[in-house]
Design brief:
Length: 267
């Protein structure tokens, strides 16, 4: 049984002027337990709509989505959702922020602090447990948000542009910290990104979506060995070959999308 299964999903939204926006059309997708999948495509192609359906935050008008064989539901402790904004609580320390999901699940203080401290250590923040968000850099705050998800030990990690607000150098460092943490847990990951380098470097498969209404245009297997380092991949010929192949497939979908971080961006 796949960990996530999307069958015949189509979805549309009503607009304020009584129109209709068709967001998704005929999506079929299976994601295996422990697989890392990245979804790329132009803005407005329904990527977030699709991942929200996986999180149980939205119900498609047509088709079905199952997560671990069940209908998705918001608040499922087996699913964590990481967004572009770290959403740390400023009055909490780094440690208590990292332990927040466990606290909401009713885990004892001793156990949640142990797990949160372990997750912070994996993300390279073991010495910052007593710090507050205002004392951390943007990249460090995002690593705390990732540690919060890892501490909860979900079976599934959904990520919507979690690295998009980081500068290029910080992003690579956070990528490597994230990869190191994921290698220890191997939970199922679905990542939405506009950064093709990120998608190829992190994922087992890259799924390309078409312009709205979003359809799955193609799926590319990434045969780069693990464990990986985004720093080391920059000089890897095979990495650049895969990137170029996927870019040629993706190019016509995103050429007018100024938010996409590919080779060419035309307004």
């Amino acid at each position: 049984m796949p960990m996530i299964k999307v069958s015949g999903v189509s979805h549309a939204f009503a607009t304020p002027d009584d129109g209709v926006v068709h967001a998704l059309q005929d999506i079929d997708l299976e994601i295996a337990d422990g697989e890392f999948v990245a979804i790329v495509g132009p803005s407005g192609c329904g990527k977030t709509t699709l991942i929200n359906a996986m999180a149980g935050l939205d119900t498609p008008l047509v088709g079905t989505v199952t997560v671990a064989g069940q209908t998705p539901s918001a608040g499922n402790p087996d699913v964590s959702y990481v967004l572009a904004k770290d959403s740390l609580l400023p009055w909490r320390t780094t440690l208590s922020n990292a332990a927040l999901a466990l606290e909401l699940q009713g885990v004892s203080k001793q156990e949640r602090e142990k797990r949160a401290l372990e997750a912070l250590g994996i993300m390279g923040l073991g010495d910052f447990g007593g710090s507050y968000a205002s004392q951390l850099s943007h990249g460090m705050r995002q690593r705390v948000a990732l540690a919060r998800s890892f501490a909860a030990k979900p079976r599934i990690l959904l990520m919507d542009e979690p690295f998009s607000a980081l500068d290029a150098q910080t992003r690579i460092n956070v990528h490597d910290a994230f990869l190191s943490a994921w290698e220890r847990n191997k939970m199922t990951v679905v990542l939405i990104t506009h950064d093709l380098t990120e998608a190829v470097g992190l994922a087992d498969r890259v799924i390309i979506m078409s312009r709205r209404p979003g359809r799955i245009k193609s799926i590319h297997d990434i045969d780069l060995p693990r464990p990986r380092s985004m720093v080391n991949l920059q000089g890897d010929d095979r990495f650049h070959q895969i990137y170029e192949t996927i870019w040629q497939d993706l190019r016509e979908e995103v050429i007018e999308d100024t938010s996409f971080q590919g080779k060419e961006r035309v307004a």
